[in-house]
Design brief:
Helix content is 43%, strand content 15%. It is of the alpha/beta class. It has two domains: 170 residues, Rossmann fold; 46 residues, no CATH class. A hairpin with a 4-residue loop joins strand 5 and strand 6. Helix 1 crosses helix 2 and helix 5 packs across helix 6. It comes from Hydrogenophaga crocea. One of its GO terms (molecular function) is phosphatase activity.
């Protein structure tokens, strides 16, 4: 039986001109996760990441903390959907930068609505694949793990959308339930699957064991 660990990237730069960049806290979250695993003797046989900067930076932090010397396989099918394109598909007017609690909530209300319509095939966000193709990118990575890494420990570093899609696929969840998983996943959170050549089985979702100490309470973030 193999083990697959899916990690959402550390805190990125929400509201900035370039979201695809870890914040200083996001870098610390990543290093702390790697150190936590090293303290417990967990080693990996293979690493797969999406091709976004925040994925590469998160793995670099994990590798620093854990003393890993592995070259990741880059899998673009593990990249996040374009949340701005999703929102523009249902709200083409410009939005103010979400720098207040109310604007933040408004942003995510629109995102939830846009995701629902994209998943149903009623909108096609510009520059994005169909939802069916997005799912295939994620499930293709799961298939690869089962076929190529039987009995091994595998690490995937990705984003909330692909990770919640993987969980939703394995559990047979509705699109609506998958969206709710997606919007609640925390930065640097770990989800675990056991797997054999035939299937994956979910063990944990959205856990932060490396931030469990009171001194890390302020390190828990969502965006």
């Amino acid at each position: 039986m193999g083990m697959l660990y899916l990690v959402r990237h550390g805190q990125a730069s929400f509201g900035a001109d370039d979201y695809d960049q870890l914040s200083e806290l996001g870098q610390r979250q990543s290093v702390r996760l790697g150190r936590y695993w090293a303290e417990r003797g967990l080693r990996f046989d293979a690493v797969i990441t999406g091709s976004l900067k925040r994925h590469a930076q998160t793995f670099a932090g994990i590798a620093e903390g854990a003393g890993l010397d592995l070259q990741p396989l880059v899998w673009p099918g593990l990249n996040e959907y374009d949340s701005e394109a999703v929102i523009r598909a249902i709200h083409p007017q410009p939005l103010a930068r979400p720098d207040t609690p109310e604007l933040y909530r408004h942003h995510f209300r629109l995102l939830r609505d846009g995701l629902t319509q994209w998943m149903a095939g009623t909108v096609s966000p510009r520059g994005m694949p169909s939802y069916d193709d997005f799912v295939k990118g994620v499930t293709g990575a799961l298939d690869h793990v089962r076929q190529q890494h039987a009995g091994q420990n595998v690490l995937i570093v990705s984003s909330g959308g692909p990770i919640s899609t993987a969980v939703g696929h394995v559990l047979g969840l509705s699109p609506e339930a998958t969206i709710e998983l997606n919007l609640r996943i925390r930065n640097s959170a770990v989800s675990e699957f056991q797997f054999n050549p035939k299937r994956h089985s979910l063990l944990t979702y959205n856990t932060l064991p490396h931030l469990d100490h009171p001194e890390h309470r302020d390190w828990i973030t969502y965006a």
